[in-house]
Amino acid sequence: MSRPETALYAYQHGWQAAIDLCIAIEQTINEYAKRERKAIEYVATLKEES
After folding, report:
1. Domain containing 33: what range?
2. Mean of the pLDDT values across residues 29-42?
3. What percent of the chain lies above the pLDDT cut of 90?
């Protein structure tokens, strides 16, 4: 593999790793938000029962 090919390969893999990281972060944030909404709904049902 030539030097330009190696540089392109590394560049592409670097971008892919960055995109994968962004997706993982977004999924974690979304999961946290979903759990937070469920907790708020649960607390609201407890207040209604009181």
Report:
1. 1-50
2. 96
3. 90
